[in-house]
Amino acid sequence: MQRLPVIAVTSGEPAGIGPDICLALTAQQLPCRAVILADRTLLAERAAQLGLNPRLREFDPARPPSAGELEVLHLPLVVPVCAGRLDPANSAYVLALLRRAVAGCSDGTFDAMVTAPVHKGVINDAGVPFTGHTEYLAALTSTPRVVMMLVGGGLRVALATTHLALADVPAAITRASLEQTLRILHRALQQRFGMAEPRILVAGLNPHSGEGGHLGGEEIELISPVLERLRQAGMHLAGPLPADTLFTPQVLARGDCVLAMYHDQGLPVLKYASFGKGVNVTLGLPLVRTSVDHGTALELAGSGAADPGSLVAAIETALEMVQAR
Q1: Strands 6-10 and 112-115, how do they pair?
Q2: How far is CA 258 from the centre of its chain?
Q3: Helices (H), the chain
Q4: Which residues contact 89 (CB under 8 A, 6 or more apart)?
Q5: Which of 104, 127, 288, 310 lies 20 to 30 A from 273 at CA?
Q6: Do 59 and 65 touch, CB atoms closer than 8 A?
Q7: DSSP 234
């Protein structure tokens, strides 16, 4: 019998909707083994709150689950959880889920990892400096540079900078950083998405892509020289393109992926096109990692109103990347 891919699914912030959407996977027909990393008691209690009665089974790499079973790799909570109520004491548990998933991807137990949402604020409240999944996983795997890309609504949008104040963006984009980002993105589209010659549409930084230097010089002094250098190396790059017209159908048809210069330049369009079904992908890691495109939604935890669509899409994208590899 052909081996099914094994995907680690970290359940995220225990007081949020992570456990809810993980439990919803019991109703999905997935072409893989989705192993939920969570406290087993937490899942059982949340299931009871939701009126569900899933068959939870401890993960055994040698024994695939039977139909209707949800595989769980148990990691214990620090303190009990009340849905919707954050407790910094469980921040250590949330980070332990991520470390275990990375370890399992590194030793071959898992083929990829998919992450449910975490709450950055409560982890920082616990005294742990934490800016997000992307940066934490990069540090865990000793990866010097990663690229965030979101997928959904027929779009792929990568970012040259991620979670920065807008005032800090121009200084964060250098020739070296932009070239590294484009090389990581190009390689990932080839190796993880099976594109022999990916076409990347690169946004300008300023309105109207700088208007010939009248609205900013970054396009002339920084972006264009990098693109020309990489074109000579064989990459298919268009730009720098004005962001206000880049996301029109006729322009998007010329590319496989957009590289936006900053978070809110590219992601509002993608989230408009795909919210609830979008996927966050971390490129450049030595493992496959995807995530949901939403937050912990504390107000929905335990209510039965959480939509697992983005988690299912994240698992499907991870499988696509595993199979392309």
Answers
A1: parallel
A2: 16
A3: 18-23, 40-50, 91-106, 120-125, 133-140, 169-172, 175-191, 218, 224-232, 243-246, 249-252, 263-274, 309-324
A4: 78, 79, 126
A5: 288
A6: no
A7: T
**Residue among 63, 57, 55 at smallest CA distance from 3:** 63
DSSP lists the bridge partners of residue 72 as: 36, 58
Tokens at 251, concatenated: 């322009």
SS3 content of the chain, % helix, strand, coil (to 5): 45, 20, 40
Cα separation, 234 vs 174, in Å, equals 21
- Which pLDDT belongs to residue 2? 67
Give every CB contact of residue 187 below 8 A, 6+ residues apart in sequence. Answer: none
- The total of other beta-carbon atoms located within 10 Å of residue 295's CB is 14
Which residues of the chain register pLDDT less than 70?
Answer: 1-2
Domains, the chain, ranges and CATH?
Answer: 1-143+285-325 (3.40.718.10), 146-283 (3.40.718.10)
Whole-angstrom CA distances from 38 to 4, 12, 95, 312 are 21, 8, 11, 17
- The answer to whether the bond into 19 is cis (omega within 30° of 0) is no
Q: Check if the beta carbon of residue 260 is closer than 8 Å to that of residue 158.
A: yes
Q: Are 281 and 147 in contact (CB under 8 A)?
A: no
Question: Running DSSP on this structure, what letter comes out for residue 193?
Answer: T
Q: Give the chain's largest Cα–Cα span.
A: 64
Residue 209's CB is within 10 A of a number of other CB atoms, namely 25
DSSP at 67:
T
User: What is the rounded CA–CA span in Å between residue 176 and residue 162?
Assistant: 16
